[in-house]
Design goal:
This protein has about 280 residues and is an alpha/beta fold. The chain folds into two domains: about 5-95 and about 210-270, Rossmann fold (3-Layer(aba) Sandwich); about 95-210, Rossmann fold. Helix content is about 45%, strand content about 15%. The protein has helices spanning about 20-25, 45-65, 75-85, 95-110, 120-125, 125-135, 150-155, 160-175, 195-200, 210-225, 245-255, 270-275; strands at about 5-10, 30-35, 70, 95, 115-120, 140-145, 180-185, 205, 235-240, 265-270. The strands form two sheets. The chain has a six-stranded parallel β-sheet with strand order 4-3-1-2-9-10, sandwiched between helices. The longest helix is centred in the N-terminal third of the chain and has 17 residues, at about 45-65. The protein is globular. It binds D-glutamic acid. D-glutamic acid binds near residues 119, 187 and 188.
């Protein structure tokens, strides 16, 4: 038993799409989330820059006494998971690519043609291709970077024809030319535009890494014997940090926590000052 929080982080609000699954399945757990909203997006930056940002955030989460870090960011998971594990061997650090890649590999065993969309850095890393091929060497995999999507989502431009045009710009040819029938949303921001995507390509089956991550979290907590156990007198606490506490970020947290009785507080912290 271990009642310390689980740490999550992303470049911004995208990683928040992992949180409802955790709150529903593991109501005794506490969460510390860090969104690097002041420096988003990560996906078009150099790997060395992404790595230095990720190190700062991981150090901050470890200083905040988390018992585990779940990287709610495909870009960080695909570019510096090993380095983060080397830096903090004292706690488990989970990446988001492996669980979704495994689900994609299972789909490919039944003849599915797998599309993976993500940031420039995620697609350039080839992390999904490599991880899927480990379980399914003959898988048909097609990848596309969609760098304009994250900035639009961070701005809250979702129910809007600019978003719809951007989706079609990236996906129309990609989906039809490659005859894709299964699409991995390889960026934690993309579940926020899932319904926009489905409206144009209703035949696609979607694999959502933000959801798949939960299975790994549950397995790791159980295997290591570090699940939280609460009493009524000490309820779980959830803290959401942002390097720039934008209105959009706060709204998204409120949306995510709506309907749950989870405690939450919001704080802003500048990692640059701390380092
Ligand atoms: N949400 C992130 C991901 O899963 C990062 C997007 C970005 O900052 O470019 O890749």
């Amino acid at each position: 038993m271990d009642n310390r929080p689980i740490g999550f982080f992303d470049s911004g609000l995208g990683g928040l799409t992992c949180i409802p699954y955790v709150l529903d399945a593991l109501p005794d757990e506490s969460i510390v989330y860090f969104g690097d909203t002041a420096r988003t997006p990560y996906g078009s930056k150099a790997v060395s820059t992404i790595r230095s940002f990720a190190f700062e955030i991981a150090d901050f989460l470890v200083d905040s006494s988390v018992k585990m870090i779940a990287i709610a960011c495909n870009t960080v998971s695909s570019t510096c998971l090993d380095e983060l594990r080397e830096r903090h061997p004292e706690i488990p650090i989970l990446g988001i690519i492996a669980p979704a890649a495994y689900t994609a590999a299972l789909a490919s065993h039944t003849g599915k043609r797998i599309g993976v969309i993500g940031t420039k850095a995620t697609i350039a890393s080839g992390a999904y291709r490599k991880a899927i091929k480990e379980s399914a060497p003959d898988a048909e995999i097609f990848e596309a970077a969609c760098p304009a999507l994250v900035p639009l989502i961070e701005e809250g431009i979702i129910e809007n024809e600019i978003m719809d045009l951007t989706i079609r710009y990236y996906l129309d040819h990609f989906v039809s030319y490659n005859k894709i029938d299964t699409l991995v949303l390889g960026c934690t921001h993309y579940p926020l535009i899932r319904h926009n995507i489905m409206q144009f390509y209703p035949e696609l089956s979607i694999i959502d890494p933000s959801r798949e991550l939960l299975t790994t979290i549950e397995t790791e907590l159980a295997n290591r014997g570090i699940l939280a156990e609460r009493t009524e007198s000490i309820p779980p606490e959830n803290t959401f940090y942002a390097s720039d506490l934008s209105e959009n970020f706060v709204n998204m947290i409120s949306r995510i926590l709506a309907g749950s009785d989870a405690n939450a507080c919001f704080r802003t912290i500048s990692l640059e000052k701390k380092v």
